[in-house]
Write a structure and sequence with these properties.
The two termini are 27 Å apart. With 136 residues, the chain is mainly alpha-helical. A two-stranded antiparallel sheet has the order 1-2. The chain has two domains: 64 residues, Arc Repressor Mutant, subunit A (Orthogonal Bundle); 43 residues, no CATH class. The chain contains five helices and two strands; from the N terminus they run αααββαα.
Length: 136
């Protein structure tokens, strides 16, 4: 498991979001054990409370389970993201990196174009780019 702190977001949010991403991408599977709070805090040079807060948030989402003496593991009910969504996310990340766009800016673009209506919103009702857009 690899977590890197960067950008302007609070460390707790970065840890939570990156672990969530590792789970949704399938890099962390159900029952996989995460580092202890103290170990991850040491590795990231943050306070143990920062990691504990991120773990608690992920537990509340149902992604992690913590048992005394058993450590923290990925929940059996944690789901992964579909392959087409992962592929599109990788393309966005690659295109953004090639264009010199940082993570925060890429996230801002994604938030700006995210459909605000039903999940099956047509392109006419949302500001999504065309499928042949090279930025996708």
């Amino acid at each position: 498991m690899s977590i890197t702190l960067s950008g302007s977001a609070p460390p707790t949010d970065q840890i939570r979001d990156q672990i969530r991403g590792l789970i949704s991408s399938g890099q962390l599977a159900a029952a996989d054990r995460l580092p202890s709070v103290r170990q991850l805090a040491k590795d990231l040079a943050v306070a143990p409370g920062t990691v504990a807060k991120a773990y608690r948030a992920l537990e509340a989402e149902g992604l992690l389970i913590t048992r005394t003496g058993g450590g923290t593991r990925v929940s059996a009910t944690a789901t992964t993201t579909s392959r087409p969504v992962l592929d599109a996310a990788r393309k966005l990340a690659d295109s953004s990196a090639r264009a010199g766009v940082d993570l925060d800016a890429a996230i801002s673009v994604l938030r700006a174009i995210w459909p605000t209506s039903a999940p099956n919103a047509s392109p006419a009702t949302s500001a999504r780019p065309a499928a042949d857009d090279p930025a996708i």
